Prior knowledge:
This protein is of the alpha+beta class. It has three domains: 8-69, RNA-binding S4 domain (Structural Genomics Hypothetical 15.5 Kd Protein In mrcA-pckA Intergenic Region, Chain A, Roll), CATH 3.10.290; 85-166, 2-Layer Sandwich (Pseudouridine synthase), CATH 3.30.2350.10; 171-323, 2-Layer Sandwich (Pseudouridine synthase), CATH 3.30.2350.10. The protein has helices at residues 22-30, 34-42, 115-120, 155-166, 239-246, 299-309, 320-323, and strands at residues 8-13, 46-48, 64-69, 85-89, 93-98, 146-152, 171-179, 186-190, 193-196, 199-205, 213-221, 225-232, 275-283, 290-294. The strands form three sheets. Strands 4, 5, 6, 7, 8, 11, 12, 13 and 14 form a nine-stranded mixed beta sheet that branches. Strand 4 (85-89) and strand 5 form a beta hairpin. Helix 1 (22-30) crosses helix 2 (34-42). It is globular, with a radius of gyration of 21 Å. 38% of the residues are buried.
Amino acid sequence: MTEPLSPxxxxxxxDEVAGDRLDLALARLIGxxxxxxxxxxxxxxxxxxxxxxxxxxxxxxxxxxxxxxPTPPGREVLPEQIPVxxxxxxxxxxxxxxxxxxxxxxxPGNWSGTLVNALMGRGQGLAPGAAPERAGLVHRxxxxxxxxxxxxxxxxALRVLSAALAAREITRRYAAMCWGHLDGETLTVDKPLxxxxxxxxxxxxxxxxxxxxxxxxxxxxxxxxxxxxCHLHTGRTHQIRVHxxxxxxxxxxxxxxxxxxxxxxxxxxxxxxxxHACWLVFxxxxxxxxxxxxxxxxxxxxxxxxxxxxxxxxxxxxxxxEYLGFYRANG
Length: 331
């Protein structure tokens, strides 16, 4: 599961929760506990149709719930001495190779041990973000997704790179293993994504959601799985995972979206899904020079790939992804 919604202002329709108590419905919508939801209601952070209501109020269809989730008091983002693998760095940016299991930024339930804490612990400045806990972040990776992550150290770099990301001028490609086999060698999934109405910690394909497009190319076909190259045209939360699940081929090891079974078949450890951000190409925010960075599969995914292939000798190459043509411009 993902973390509960971060501090900010959100709106929801009552249509899907009509008949429910306000506190119970709110808890489900924002991914917080019923007690936390009741506290937000009692402190005036929640309105229904523009008016304040009690926690016990029964919701009716056709209205809007507005909720403001404040930043918890005393939650200062602190630097921590946590090792982090840096693959590129200068005065403007830093690119790290994030390990699986590390949360990118502090949020309820993970106020320490995150990548932002680790970067601050290196004694470097990070560009101010929308909130202190998101300082410098140009994009994000899920907790159990490993790989390359771009961070801005200056406000100028953050502004330029954020604009480049919005204009789809930053290339992000991932290696994923999915269950089953695609119908062809390539597949494009262009489906809008939004929060799941039944579980606010998840994302679902929903009409009216934010546009999302992913291109998939099969690199190898194994007995039970396909190895894919995934190219993001947009960067929605859980995009690759939800898009693959929506076509019946969830990411191997993805407990949230139906791919968690059969780990032993592919030698994948618990609480790990086979998704790695391994290719990042962008223009430097100041010099304009093209920067092309690559991250080989980490040891756990390389072991899983070898197990799924059942042909270990195929992967004696220093980088199995290169061997399989992952980095071909049009491959």
